[in-house]
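Thread: Newbie trying to understand structure tokens

Hi all, I'm a second-year student working on a class project, and my supervisor (Dr. K.) asked me to get a predicted structure for one chain before our next meeting. I've only ever worked with sequences, so writing a 3D structure as a token string is new to me. If someone could post the tokens and maybe explain what I'm looking at, I'd be very grateful. Here's the chain:
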Amino acid sequence: MMRLYGYRNGRTLRALWVLEEVGAEYEFVEVDVTKGEGQAEWFLKINPFGKVPVLVDGDVVISESAAICQHVAETYPAAALLPPPATADSAHCHQWISFLLPKWTRRCGPSPNTASRYPRSSVCRPWWIRRCGSCNARCACSTTRCSGASFWQGTG
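---
Reply by user tm_fold:
Sure, no problem. This is what the structure looks like when written as tokens:
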């Protein structure tokens, strides 16, 4: 069973969301970073950087929310959160995840100064917004590359 170490808000929510989306069995271990638990000796043995979230899946220890989400999505391919690997769709999906992730804020959606510039790729569904309808209004596609494409709709 997977074990997710994290705090109840922030980037841990991304990992929790994808675990729920795929129906994974997991244990959540709260690391109260407001009380310094991220720097506790027991936690630094798991993640020497002292950051959350961290996913432990057997012998594999993964930090960084996007890497955790990708690992979980790949571990549960039947959930169809990612396109088939080694395809053009997969490459474009990874491109958009890498491009959009740093621009994403704690609100559900991109920051106001980037919302109109970044399209929602049709080839992958971001785990943290699938059910958030308010994201629709914030993300629009104005580039030729995406005209006629399906976009993340916030439904699920």
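A couple of things are worth pointing out once you decode it. The first strand starts at residue 2 and ends at 6. Residues 28 and 128 are 17 Å apart (CA to CA). Feel free to ask follow-ups in this thread.
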